[in-house]
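Title: Request for sanity check on Fic family protein prediction

Description:
We are preparing a figure and want to confirm that the structure record we downloaded matches what your pipeline produces today. Could someone re-run it with the sequence below and paste the raw structure tokens into this thread? We only need the token string, no images.
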Amino acid sequence: MRNFDYKKLAEKNWDNEILLLCSKIHEYKGRQELFIRQKPAQLGRLIEIARIQSTEASNRIEGIVTTSTRIKQLVAEKTAPKNRDEKEILGYRDVLNTIHESHEYIDITPNNILQLHRDLLKHAGFSYGGSFKNVQNYIKETRPDGTEIVRFMPLAPYETPGAVEAICRSFVETAALEIVDPLILIPAFICDFLCIHPFNDGNGRMSRLLTLLLLYKCGYEVGKYISIEKQIEKTKDVYYDVLQKIDYGWHEEENDVTPFIKYNLKMILASYIEFEERVGVMDNSGLKSSAYDIVKAYADNKLGKFTSADVLANCPTVGRTSVFNALKKLTEEGYIQKHGERRHTFYVKTSKSPW
């Protein structure tokens, strides 16, 4: 079995793109922390939206789907699951809630990873939930003619417990030494987790949940307010392409984790940027702009049609009544045009709006 020593990451010369991405994320992190301290009460709806989007997006990547309405009801615990997909969605919701609410108490150990995996699959009733794989799994690739080939063979079941123990131990030791930026250390850990592929099922979802957990534990809580999983789902073609590259030479300790690190950094940075866009427009004095200004700014930056639900989701600091009042005023001013009625209502910018 290969060795795992993340302290070696401190000896690597990272390229300018990675260093710049890390620097930008540190900058955004500082601004987010300031806003959270100043305006904590305004972020409740943002958290609610992020949980729904994370649950929906991460499962959809794996082909586990239901309607948007059902997702909202399931996340809000207002309905019971109707099928296996919805049971698996409930499991993701539960683990996501655990990470949001208790991350500081969850140490990075094999036992805790097993417990999270157990909770991920418990509603679906899979017998292997909370256990490492008991059969050899394979990473397969489908060719254009429809045939499948084995592209990568993860570790054998008998090697898996020791490997997971090794990556957890090395991560904790390296993080404690503070010799590697957590933004580099975290994707390196997740890369090895995916190559070990420790479970019969749920490896992809667990990798994204563990990414959130590790980010939270290292002080990067943007995923609490903006769905990183949605950022991944929106760029899943790139995501799959990067995943295909991370295992070349992995067994020989010759794989290159750089593309995976860059991809993760870009998704984290995109989430921080979206956070600042969503918390509302700030004027030069640092005071919060009016509801009208925030909705107007959203309309300015929106290409194509949008609904009141879109505004509510993207302007979480503005209340429902204020959003509708702002849309009504903008319509009366001719700044936007209203189309349709009731549930089919949508809006578009007019020529009076800047493009």
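Thanks, this matches our download. The domain at 291-349 is CATH 1.10.10.10 (Arc Repressor Mutant, subunit A).
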